[in-house]
Write a structure and sequence with these properties.
six-stranded mixed β-sheet; DUF4136; signal; DUF4136 domain-containing protein
């Protein structure tokens, strides 16, 4: 039975890793010519309204800038496109009832080996956030593209930038719109 421990740890790791996925979607103005947008700047009035810490705003804006620069955009004082963000967050509470006899009653290993008994509840709290990235035609002052990503947020300071990079990267994979990418 001890040979199962590495497999159980691997299965647990795989399950936790699957929780780090980001659900993304995007929408865009079908009449916009995305080939015209080559320069960008951040839209400060919109960003200031985002209800997150200034440190998290910096992390998000840094990740967006890195993604846009990698796509060939240039940051400019006279941009063709403005970038704004909006965020929402909600706490998710999961309660697991742990009682009974059999495999996994106390997780993988109970007090009597893999077959054990256990009673009680386990409460798990996570914060799920949604980041909206808005791309605005600077001349017309109209929204031309919006990307949205929803995923679990990191609470650990060292992991925050990594998680934000992951979320922003997944969202920005949707830009330019697939229809426009082939043109």
């Amino acid at each position: 039975m001890k040979n199962f421990r590495p497999f159980l740890l691997l299965a647990l790791f795989a399950m936790l890793a699957s929780c780090s996925t980001v659900r993304v979607s995007s929408d865009y103005d079908q009449s916009a010519n995305f080939n015209e947008y080559k320069t960008f700047a951040f839209f400060k009035p919109g960003i200031d309204k985002a209800e997150i810490s200034d440190l998290d705003k910096k992390r998000i804006l840094r990740a967006i800038e890195d993604n846009l620069l990698a796509k060939g955009f240039v940051k400019s004082e006279n941009p063709s496109m403005l970038v704004s963000i909006f965020t929402t967050a909600q706490e998710r509470v999961d309660v697991f009832n742990n009682y009974g006899w059999g495999w996994g009653a106390w997780g993988a290993w109970g007090p009597w080996g893999p077959w054990g008994g256990g009673f009680g509840n386990t409460v798990s709290r996570t914060t799920e956030g949604t980041l909206y990235i808005d791309l605005i035609d600077a001349q017309k002052k109209e929204l031309v593209w919006q990307g949205q990503g929803t995923g679990y947020l990191a609470r650990d300071v060292e992991r925050k930038q990594e998680r934000i990079n992951e979320i922003v990267g997944e969202i920005m994979q949707e830009y330019p719109p697939k229809k426009m990418a082939s043109n």
